[in-house]
Amino acid sequence: MSAHLSIRNLIKRFGGLTATNDFSLEITPGSSVGLIGPNGAGKTTIFSQIMGEVRQDSGQIALDGLELTPLATARRIRAGVSRTYQVPRPFAEMSVAENIRVGLMPDNIWSMIAQGPDPDRELELALSVGFTKDQLEKLPSELSMGDLRKLEMARTMATGPRMMLLDEVFAGLTVGEIAMISGLVQQMRADGMTFLIVSHDLKALEPLIDRAVAINHGTLIADGPYDEVMNDAAVRASYLGT
Amino acid sequence: MGLRWYHFALWAAFAAGMFLLPEIVPRGTLRTIIFANFLAIFAISWDTLSGRTGYVSFGHPFLIGIGAYTTAILTKRFDVPVEISIPLAVLMTMVGGLIVLLPALRIKGSYFALVTLAMMELMYQLVQVIRPDLTGGTRGMSGLPTLTRGAVNGFYMSTALMLSIAFTTWLLMKTRLGTALSAIGMNEEAVAGSGLSVTRLKLVAFTASAFTAGLGGAVYVHYLGSIAPRALFDINFVFTIIVAALIGGAGTTIGPILGAFFLTFLLEYLRPWLPGAERYLIYGGVALVLYMYQPKGLIYLMGQAVRRVRKGAA
Amino acid sequence: MLQVLIQGLLLSGLYALIAVGFTLVFSVGRVLNLAYGAYLLIGGYAYFYFAQSLGLPKFAGVLLAGILGCVIGLVKYRLIVKPLKGDQVAIEIATLILAVVLQSAVILVFGDSSKILLPIIPGVERVAGAAIPYSNLFAAVASWVILLALWWFVKTTHTGRAMQAVSMDAKGAAISGVDADRINMITWAISGTLGAVAGVFFASYTQLYPGMWVAPLIIAVAVVIVGGIGSIIGTLIVAHIVGFLEVMTSAFIAPELRGVFTMILIIGILVLRPKGLFGREEI
Predict the structure, then answer these.
(1) Fewest CB within 10 A of the end CB: N or C in chain B?
(2) How many folded domains does chain A comprise?
(3) Which residues cross the membrane (chain C) (predicted)?
């Protein structure tokens, strides 16, 4: 169930800007890592490279020893890694249930046609992220920011990942919603899910991770237990904007 | 979203109503309905690709044309019987369309629309100059074998074809495949982010669209008994197909049918006042106002009205 | 050979003028105006009506055609483009419908049959056995003058530079105090004027008929696609590629095939480089 992610010497340049600078990271099966750094440090770019939405210039990304680099995004998700987006991207004219349905679909045209949707599983996923049963037929336009994040979580979970990348899952959420999502993450951790989490809400992040990794200007500047990383001089300096 | 018994009952009622029409309406109206049927088929085909996935094709006659020309050439020049030439034409549309448009599917948005438009113009120009002994050149071909005689038979044939295409498409779009195709139209990246191969889904949408276009085009040629490049590869024809789908309601199956009937009859009723091409002035004006007012089309407006009445009653 | 060269130059100049109005709107507003060809149609017919039916001076005919194009451009922006708020597909569809509406309006007023425009300047010059009508020469020269004036306008005036800013980064321009709405309106007005004037020349080159808007639209599309979005220089270069391609095809291969290579060029470029050949740099 758990997955092992291995990133080696990842480099990505956009024109003159080095977004990822020789970045390496090992995430052991079942562990949870927080990726922190100031705005524009290159956190989301690393996510995009893991998912294949942005191609690295050089370096390797492997999941359980399977090299992801040649694979398209859909294939990487089938390999077991899935992500949420900082800005939720629901299917605007589909209900909550239908949004989750897309995540649950197998990547196989025939079974898409031959087998109907699985409403029980859709309901189960919706409930697990904290939707109520009567929200199932709601459209994204009728949902709050917190609900949209939950929907994003549910659709990501629906693809059956062994590793999840969470990008700013707490932004725009109420205290109650943060507690809800945190509880969900903790439960998945207990079940062996591997996590890589980006969050500006460090207070909410801390209890969810075994280890923190700090980057600035695409370069790894600290890696270790949360307290140690937060007390690191370079990390403090990066947050002050130098 | 799921299938319910009343969906099938509604389809059955629709089909029964259509097949009763020859008993009620005059011959002239039947002829109008025949054209509406074919337009509906083309609009459904357009909608399968463009209405669902959001890849707008401005060159749909390109696909219709492959089907139409294949069967026309086979029957006229090689004396192939219609029963064989039509399936071959459909196959040719799917294969030919795929070969030509496969590279275009990675092009997004406006550029995709432009490539399809260019494709249609290219086809128009090539048909006239390459092997005119086969294609009939600028004049096209006439005296092709026809499938039916008389308005009533033509009506039954076109209605049966339209209904079976519409019903099949509707069933297909009710499956999870249909949901996935619509999802592409809403947010392509998020579909990829749900672990689905977008390229493969687009290919399926395209192939289904080409199948319908090829079938419709081939049968249409054998209804008319003639084919002319200017009438086929014409921007006015593109316009009619797209407007029918949009006015009725893109992304639905009944919408394009509704739109096709609405537009065909509008055009027909304008004939006494405006006999020539200037009818398109009113036709286009109505289409433009409706589209600007509600891009989701008549089907959505009707749904809204029903919801309002229900709310009033409750 | 000389004949091909001269004809190529003349036709390319006209094509550049046809394409530049389309490019401008695409560049500044990111909008494909599929009714662009209708400016040419309206311009051609307006000139026909004012200069030939009413017998006004020819210069007045061109001027009035330009004014009409300008007004239609403004109305189109206000009533169709702005309410659709940057939904590109919706704008394309709406403008395509509009083009057909305008075409049928022309049919309603002027009828279905084609009309011959009298040459703007009568007379023919013979160069190396080739007959060059003064009209075509005038059209090409006028195109170059207009293009140079436009280039000067975009590079040096305040409004022109604001247009450049919006075309590069609409949000950034808005933050620096550029009124993007006003700039868009001006761009649509210029585009309409250029299109209508190009229509007068184009109609005198070929003939005046209600379906005449499709061919120039395709040319404009080809130029935009091959040249990438936006540069005036790129437009000029590509207009010459397309123009010479057509002239050479009709001279050396077959006149009926003249448009074929333009289409193949569009399709080939888009398939190989989905963002156009030169990409986008500046207006």
Answers:
(1) C
(2) 1
(3) 6-26, 33-50, 56-77, 89-111, 131-154, 185-205, 217-245, 257-274
